[in-house]
Amino acid sequence: MVFKSSRLVQTGLIVSLLLAISCSNESTHQKELITSLELELSQVKDSLSQCQNELGRIKNTPEIRLLKAQNYETELDNATALLEYNDIIEKFPQSKESIEAKNASDRIQRVMEGDRIAAEKRKALKFNGLKKKTKITYEGLSIGVEKIWIGSRWIFDSYGDRYFLRDAERGNTHILARISITSKYKNPTLPPLLVYKLYNGQLVLIDKLKYEFRRWKDYGSYLGNYADYGNDFNHSETIRFSLGLQLEKDIIDNNPIYVVLKKEGCFYRDNNSYSRPEVSYKPANCDNKTLLDVDDFEDDYVLVKTF
Known about the structure:
The strands form 4 sheets. This protein has a 5-stranded antiparallel beta sheet. Strands 13-7-6-10-14 form a 5-stranded antiparallel beta sheet. Helix 3 packs antiparallel against helix 4. It folds into 2 domains: 64 residues, no CATH class; 178 residues, Immunoglobulin-like. The protein is an alpha+beta fold. The protein contains 6 helices and 14 strands.
């Protein structure tokens, strides 16, 4: 029994040793296999990266970029096509493709500008129903709009056969107005004449016209040596004014322009003995809307002129 038991113990040890050797060999083989696979994977990644870089280089040639831009244009995606064409012009200025891109870019911009103008005209239709008024009355004031026009020279403060003027700077022009205001009050605040441009179906505020007196009795009254009652609501019900605003010509040339009166006091009478003339009307508390829609013309805003 002792002999058999010893034999069994020896057999068990041998089997355990063989299993351990077998597992050790298998583990070594697995490690070698994993190392080999990792090396192959790294090589594949390197090859893939090289292919991607090469593909990126090919895609970024002016020839391929031009084809890509032309495809966008064919699909009527003009905005994206324009970006592509302009990128070719910037990155490949010496290439023949940049010449084609420049011609295509100019063509698309003309088309897009035409589409913009057509869209603006469609959106402007809702303003076509507004009636222009040249006589506006509110809260004791009566405003008569005699003339509104575009001109390079603004004339005001006339006396005798003389006057003062402001010529528009190069590239600019004036929107000019002649109005008369009748007031039942002795010191009224005067309404603003506002200039809006039509953009995206709304009127966008540009600025307001400035007030000047149209005429003085003579040079002495202009200087303030003595009063001119014709320019003082304390003595006269009606005063005539010349208004003007200088703008860039491009704004007027490229946008429908709306001149609007707001029925609210904005300009107040100011006396300054150091100014010539001593009396003027200056803006204050002019809370004018930046954006106007059709509904705004039901109450406070009145359309007086369009260009």
